[in-house]
Amino acid sequence: MQEVRSGYQDIEVLRGISLDIESSRITCMIGPNGAGKSTVLKTIYGILKARAGEILFEGNRIDGHKPLDILKRGICYVPQGRCIFPLMTVEENLQMGAFTRKDDQVTKDITALIERFPILGERRKTLAGNLSGGEAQILAISMGLLLQPRLMLLDEPSMGLSPQSVGLIFKIIKQINEMGTTILMVEQNARRALGISHHAFVLELGKIRFDGTGDEILNNAELRKVYLGG
Q: Which domain holds residue 43?
């Protein structure tokens, strides 16, 4: 992403932002509400159109492309709020997660996910709307994994979850990364996000104010005071 400007109608949120995401790493973006973190993800995914600059993925420009095309190129987006189908079962949601795939390995991949995340098997016939917050987030992430992404965009994956579920979600994010998937994550729970991230960006008012490793930001007294509450 190089010198990208983006926003909503007459409001420009991203003001010439540039960032590089390292392959096979976890990168997080932190910052105050309204900083532009979610706007970055939506612009990468094509939900919002970049007004200037360029976005490259694996050497090819993707700015100007529609979300379905970007999805087919290997990027999936898991939005905040656990985007699932509440009136369908967990199993049906997983089948819907693979809607763009035409291969004959979908059933095998669903079985593998259920083995990796046993709660999905336990709730297989349960309506997704009856899941707990943590269970629903595991389902939403699993639906994204069925698209076989090389880059996963996660928007506030721990939002509204219990402390126990938060710990489980961050453990799962680490597992996904260890399987080889690159992660770009927006997260308000900055300390937990930085704790598992290889690299991080601090956003404020549509610009990057600082970037470094997760540990560098956690150990920076000034950043800790301003963005992490002391």
A: 2-227
Q: Can you give the CATH number for the domain in which 190 is found?
A: 3.40.50.300
Structure tokens at 85: 């189908």
Do 151 and 74 meet the contact criterion of CB atoms below 8 Å apart?
Answer: yes
Q: What is the pLDDT of residues 150-175, one digit of tens each?
A: 999 999 999 989 988 999 999 999 99
Cα atoms in the Cβ-side hemisphere of radius 13 Å centred on 204: 7
Count of domains for the chain: 1
What pTM value is reported for the model? 0.94
DSSP letter assigned to residue 110: H
Q: Decide: helix, strand or coil at residue 212.
A: strand
Q: How far is CA 24 from CA 94, 135, 150, 199, in A?
A: 24, 25, 8, 11
Sign, CA torsion 23/107/115/160 = positive
Terminal CA-CA length for the chain: 31
